[in-house]
């Protein structure tokens, strides 16, 4: 099992790191100093009454935020304690500024106001370290300012690029329909490889749907997962040939976790299968053959990838599940039924991965690649082999029946076993590392040759 690359170096961390190193540490040190100065010694009444009140408010907000996140099933693995500490500190900083305004000097008032954005920034830093969302300042700035994506062009540029043999693929912003699903989505993206521009008309290339995780947007695979650079490298090594890639919106907003099902959070499944896929076929000439279509997903998107394939083998014959769960979920079974399907248990059964496979019976020509991560067992990682372990049958690590606390632990071996039982070809790769975007990016690099071979590209 390989250890994942250090996010401070190489292709995942161009620029100043937001995941480790001097910048996150400096931000938190400066914040602590600002909070201490904002508090000050002041009067006895301030120390014995108002400071404890601010602390209580901070603790209450931290617990309330944690409870809300758990109630909505918005995270598959538990957040680090530092996230709740800084969340509480942010609320406390606001309280200190408000409660101590009249008793503070103008200098202390300024510091009190400054402590508020600093504590909020420290909270975001910890959140980012938890999920690996932005590896560097430059990546975050590009996303926040909506800077151009790698290889991005306008649709009006397509005609003049015909038969010009570009050295890289091109990325387009597309507006897929929502007339069937009614799913209100954000801008979506399509990557066209260099081979798409060869000849007088586009060739009929295979296609891959790329789905990100919770708390994100359709550009995450491109900006954070470095997918375009990865595909460009692959195409360059294969004479410009690669599949067409589509980066759809499976959630509709940053914190709307649809799990790619049809439900109260939106008809995401219908959008992906009845609108996005047909649009790529009709607009860009991609093959309509199921054997030429694959779905790749990370975290909640990994769950989506397998689920779309087993529910629609007539549309997708290949999937890559990177760190997904056992099935679409928003907590335990009853919580999922309530949160995703408004209490409709039949809808849960219609979209539950293992239930769907069991009802379908043996599949023909379907294959899945599972990429799982294990947290490094301290210093024992130094003696691990250099390549991912690949297995055609499941391995028995990780917990079973512990979806409530760590829903992805042991999920992929379980799914691999269930897939083999219904004649789905299964390969499982296990990495030493954490459930972050850096893991997803490396897993995609390693999965792309297998994916291309499956699709015949």
UniProtKB/TrEMBL annotation:
Q: Where are the transmembrane segments?
A: 20-41, 48-68, 83-103, 110-131
Coiled coil segments of this chain? none
SUPFAM superfamilies found in the cross-reference section? alpha/beta-Hydrolases
In this chain, composition skew of type Basic and acidic residues spans 377-390
Compartments, as annotated in UniProt: Secreted
Q: What is its main location?
A: secreted
GO molecular function terms listed in the Swiss-Prot or TrEMBL record: acyltransferase activity, transferring groups other than amino-acyl groups
**One Pfam match:** Esterase
Q: Does the keyword tRNA processing apply?
A: no
Keyword annotations for this protein, in alphabetical order, are: Membrane, Secreted, Transmembrane, Transmembrane helix
User: Mind naming one GO cellular-component term on file for this protein?
Assistant: extracellular region
Region annotated Disordered, chain positions? 372-400
Protein name, please?
Answer: Esterase
Q: Which organism is it from?
A: Mycolicibacterium sphagni
């Amino acid at each position: 099992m390989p250890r994942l690359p250090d996010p401070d170096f190489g292709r995942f961390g161009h620029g100043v790191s937001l995941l480790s190193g001097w910048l996150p540490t400096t931000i938190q040190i400066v914040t602590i100093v600002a909070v201490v100065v904002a508090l000050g010694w002041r009067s006895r009444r301030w120390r014995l009454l108002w400071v404890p009140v601010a602390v209580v408010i901070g603790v209450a907000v931290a617990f309330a935020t944690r409870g809300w996140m758990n109630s909505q099933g918005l995270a598959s693995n538990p957040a680090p304690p530092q996230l709740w500490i800084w969340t509480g500190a942010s609320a406390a900083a606001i309280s200190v500024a408000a409660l101590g305004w009249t008793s503070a000097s103008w200098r202390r008032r300024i510091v009190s106001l400054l402590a508020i954005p600093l504590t909020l920034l420290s909270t975001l830093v910890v959140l980012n370290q938890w999920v690996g969302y932005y590896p560097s300042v430059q990546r975050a700035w590009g996303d926040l300012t909506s800077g151009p994506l790698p290889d991005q062009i306008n649709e009006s540029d397509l005609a003049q690029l015909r038969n010009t043999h570009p050295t890289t693929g091109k990325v387009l912003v597309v507006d897929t329909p929502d007339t069937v699903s009614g799913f209100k989505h954000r801008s979506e993206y399509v990557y066209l490889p260099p081979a798409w521009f060869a000849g007088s008309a586009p060739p009929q290339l295979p296609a891959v749907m790329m789905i990100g995780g919770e708390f994100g947007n359709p550009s995450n695979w491109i900006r954070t997962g470095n997918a375009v650079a990865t595909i460009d490298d692959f195409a360059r090594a294969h004479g410009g040939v690669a599949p067409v890639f589509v980066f759809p919106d499976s959630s509709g907003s940053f914190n709307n976790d649809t799990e790619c099902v049809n439900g109260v959070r939106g008809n995401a499944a219908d959008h992906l299968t009845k609108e996005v896929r047909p649009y790529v076929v009709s607009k860009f000439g991609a093959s309509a053959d199921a054997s030429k279509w694959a779905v790749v997903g990370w975290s909640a998107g990994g769950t989506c990838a397998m689920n779309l394939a087993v529910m629609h083998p007539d549309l997708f014959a290949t999937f890559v599940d990177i760190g997904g769960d056992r099935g679409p979920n928003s907590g335990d079974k009853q919580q999922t039924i309530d949160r995703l399907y408004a209490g409709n248990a039949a809808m849960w059964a219609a979209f539950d991965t293992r239930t769907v496979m069991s009802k379908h019976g043996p599949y023909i020509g379907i294959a899945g690649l599972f990429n799982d991560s294990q947290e490094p067992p301290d210093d024992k990682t130094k003696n691990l082999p250099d390549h991912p372990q690949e297995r055609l049958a499941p391995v028995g690590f990780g917990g079973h029946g512990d979806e409530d606390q760590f829903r992805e632990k042991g999920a992929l071996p379980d799914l691999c076993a269930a897939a083999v039982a219904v004649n789905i070809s299964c390969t499982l790769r296990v990495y030493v590392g954490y459930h972050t975007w850096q893991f997803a990016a490396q897993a995609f690099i390693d999965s792309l040759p297998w994916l291309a071979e499956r699709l015949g590209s």
